[in-house]
Amino acid sequence: MSESGAGGQPSGGSLSSYVAELYDTCGQRKAMGQSSPEFARPHFFLLRTFLAENDLLVILNTKRCRYQCAFCRLPAKSIRSWVPDSDVLAQFRFVATEVRHALSVVDRVTLSNEGSVLDESTLGGGALREIMSAIGAMRRVRRIDLESRLGFVRPDWLRRLRAEVPRATLGVLTGFETLNEHIRDEVLVKRETLAEFLAGLDNVALAGAALTAHVLFKPDPQMSDNAAGIEAMETIQFLTAECGGRDIELTIRLNPMYRAAGSSWAAAADATAGYAPPRLTDVIRVAEQAAKAGIRVYIGLSAEGLAGDGGTYRAREDYSPALIKRVKLFNDGPGAGIGRADSAAARVPSLVS
Asked: What pLDDT, on a 0 to 100 scale, did the predictor assign at position 28?
């Protein structure tokens, strides 16, 4: 690393090395696992492509998530005390300033806080509403995803938030993870029953919102590669049917499970004879089958800066840069799926070995 100049940007060296360092420190490779150094700065932000659109991801620095899922170490990044609305607004102001020259090309915004932005015990409703109003000033934005557990979805509140950006579709981004109740309760310790999730899904429908759902590929360290593929497809099929029956636009984020260092899930993986992270080729196969059925699917490659050694798909024998390129082409191309949930509900194929 070269010395940094004004604004924390690298300085010195040749022009090509300067640009290369900017690319690594400010682009897709920028560090993601660290905590914010102060209340007035977000944990993370990135202008990225998502399903061929320009998506501004903002992870706000707020009071930590009240849940402690066994597989997740994200709450450890956040503090236990309240972050004032003024500081939260300063975080978004900082992000807007940093990406100011690209604001006119942002198609969508994804807003997170390593938990639930709709949980007003962690993020003030006044701050969220003002941020939505600020997003409304970004006239190209046509989609806003708010990351949250569905238990915090209130239709009247979502409608009020959407009124701040009337030209955009409002979506809820949630971690569904898996259909398997044993894995949800005993392995992931999700603390969200299927009945609670479906009640929340009813509220998403009442709000007229869309849904983006995280599905974990191989969420149980004892799973075989073949069982992981079958379980992921069954989970996608379940979400497709439930969203289709409620006329909810659905996008799947299919995430190969990573081993979060320090989590109880990681400890269980370490104690499992023969544990291996997912194979990316298996993840691609499931994503392609779902996309052929008309389901919008995005393959998540990030381990959020929290994976331990050997804890991601990169440790498997099939991993190669060519495979990463294949995933990126899938995510940005027509293979990502174009159909609505209701048209695909009955056509998701079963996965065979």
From this structure: 83
In a domain, 133, yes or no: yes
Give residue 69's domain range: 41-159
pLDDT of residue 164 exceeding 90: yes
In a domain, 245, yes or no: yes
Q: Considering the domain boundaries, does residue 16 fall inside one?
A: no
One domain, residues 63 and 122: yes
Phi, psi of 214 (to 5 degrees): -75, 130
Angle between helices 280-292 and 225-245 (to 10 degrees): 30
Number of domains observed in the structure of the chain: 2
**Residues of the chain with pLDDT > 70: what percent?**
91
pLDDT value for 12: 62
Q: Which residue among 120, 142, 159 closes a domain?
A: 159
Return d(Cα 138, Cα 96) in angstroms, integer.
Answer: 10
Q: Per-residue pLDDT for 349 more than 50?
A: no
Q: Which amino acid type is present at position 193?
A: T
Amino acid at 150: L
* Pair 94, 222 in one domain: no
* pTM score, whole prediction: 0.89
- Crossing angle of helices 85-98 and 125-136, rounded to 10°: 20
